[in-house]
Description:
It is built from 9 helices and 13 strands. By secondary structure, it is of the alpha/beta class. It has one domain. Strands 7-8-5-3-9-13-12 form a 7-stranded mixed sheet, with helices on both faces. It has a 3-stranded mixed sheet with strand order 1-2-4. β1 and β2 form a beta hairpin.
Amino acid sequence: MGTYRFPNKISVPEGFFMGELIVTEQIIVNALEKLGIKAGDVVFLHSSLKSFGYVEGGAPTVVNALLKVLGADGTLAVPTFSTYFWDSPSQVWDRQRTPSTTGVICEAVRLHPAAKRSPHAPHPIAAVGRLAEDLTERYNLTDFSDDSPFARLIELNAAIVMAGVSFSRCTLFHLLEEKFQVPYRQWQNFSGTVVDQGVTEFKTFPFYRTFIPGVRNNFEFCEEQMLDAGLIKTANAGLSKIMTARAQDIYDFIAPRIQDDPYYLVTPESRDIIRKFFAEPEPQGTGESKGPV
């Protein structure tokens, strides 16, 4: 898939920059290999560039390290979300031009010469590699329906990689909320103008969103439980803690818990808010999945 660089790469003394360790491509490659990422894998990456410390070459170095490990048969995908069309139906989202607001590494993937981007304006992804078209040429109506890129990540048992961010950023959890129709969310339509290869169309996207004020997700608790269950691997690159879990493992771990307890993915405080909103008793689960108190 090749190496690419931003212009005017900064030249720094070898080994350190302003007293800090320089994080090189090879350091990141070593961490990915320690996590068990290998040639031919599909990776879906959530990331923070600044979590690494000083990265020689910036965001493209992280991207190149991933592509190097994945090889010609592998695929790298990232979220390229924004707020479309949350603010106003007058917004215009351009599939080829609208930047991502999910970090500079994600934007570097979107700008990669071989990148493809999905057409779902509220939750688009970008991908590079053998299965890039498979993941992005999907015209799913809802964000996380069975024909969406996120459902396909589960089918492919992709490695969900969190580079310098916690699983509080893991979009895949929202697929389970939609799949099992959690009661604190409801359908709402978001509309706006989509531009694709110069063709303009006004579109509406139904989104299963939280509608009860004050309700917050508790994905950090899911991270703790998955760590305890041995589903998450960790490694360090520079100052960044990198974690990974397989998409199918995440789904298989969360699905029975959310079926047993529909409030599994929200905070303890949110449970009280939901209970008062519906004026009904808290669901009685096994007790294992209720979260910290």
